[in-house]
Structure prediction request, 240 residues.
Amino acid sequence: MHENKKLKKLGFIKSFSIYIPAAILMYVLTQYMIPYLTKLTGIETVFFWFVVGGLGIFTPLIVAGIFILKSEGYKLSKETWVHRLRFRKITKRDAIWAIVGLIAIGALSGLVMKILVLIIGEFDHSPAFMSFEPLNKGRYWLLLIWLPYWILNILGEEFLWRGVMLPRQELVFGKYTWLIHGFGWSLFHIAFGWQLMLTLLPILFIQPYIVQKTKNSWLGVILHGGLNGPSFIAICFGFI
Prediction:
């Protein structure tokens, strides 16, 4: 089956009819529900970010992606996974793009962070609902909560944004798709605050560009997970 046989265009209005509700969901849960649960229970905020984020934000992204695929007439199958969602075997060229992307995003994000510190002084790199002290012996159990959350985070976003939406957006926006896509993905993260948003700009635009260029959604998983996961572990143990 040709990958574009059932593929429908996804223009600006339809794209943002997905981005905007997702951004509102993120904002409401992080700004209101998580602080409420923390105050109610006394359990540290990051625990509820893992639980509420994983189940209340990223799981719905997966459900939305499945719903969209079903509405297109696709079944959840290996063929759909490879041809429609473009989770394909990684080639040598893909691997080079992944390495270049990881280096570029890491370097540019670090540069943006240093510039921000020079302009506004030291600031908390994490939003309030993610902030936590480095783990100590009695809090290593949080890693057990983080792992399934991390999987849902990466799977949810890469499945919906890059797998389901990006190929359809390319039919409308062509070579400029990554710009529209990056803007929509940025909107989803508006709850993170402007300081973190600025430091995220490299990944928010470079990653969609690379996935579009390679036509391989696994590159999104590698870039997103490869930067997100190690960064969290480094914070956990006080390295950054």
User: Anything to note?
Assistant: The chain has one domain: 12-236. The two ends are 47 Å apart (CA to CA). Residues 12-236 form one domain.
